[in-house]
Specification:
The longest helix has 4 residues. The protein is mainly beta. Helix content is 4%, strand content 37%. The chain starts with a helix and ends with a strand.
């Protein structure tokens, strides 16, 4: 079964927007697939919560997500960094591998799958 088979159905609320630091990130409230919700200003994105470098989560076990310059999610294990807007690798050991996006929008204060 692939990650796309487990993607949340459209309309699924993944996280309250006010529970996601700005800038920063937080794991989604969705059990079937590890999803990280990230935001910086008006930009809110979701990615599968797995660093492509070694398959580890992009956040610490506490849910804290490291963000650099308000623009980059930084893997806490080996320092790979990813552009919040696009998910593209911006540096570190992940090379050209980017994050896998999950389509979301903000509705009524909730980050919702689309």
């Amino acid at each position: 079964m692939s990650a796309s088979d487990l993607a949340p159905p459209a309309g699924t609320a993944l996280k309250a927007l006010d529970a996601v630091p700005d800038p920063g990130g937080a794991p989604a409230d969705y059990e079937a697939l590890p999803i990280l919700i990230v935001r910086s200003g008006q930009t809110v994105k979701a990615y599968i919560n797995v660093c492509p470098h070694q398959g580890r989560p992009l956040c610490l076990p506490s849910g804290k997500t490291l963000v650099s310059e308000g623009r980059f999610v930084v893997c806490p294990f080996h320092g790979a960094s990813f552009d919040i807007e696009s998910g593209a690798c911006a540096g570190g050991p992940a090379g050209k591998a980017g994050l896998k996006p999950i389509a979301v929008e903000v509705r009524d204060g909730q980050v919702v799958a689309v």
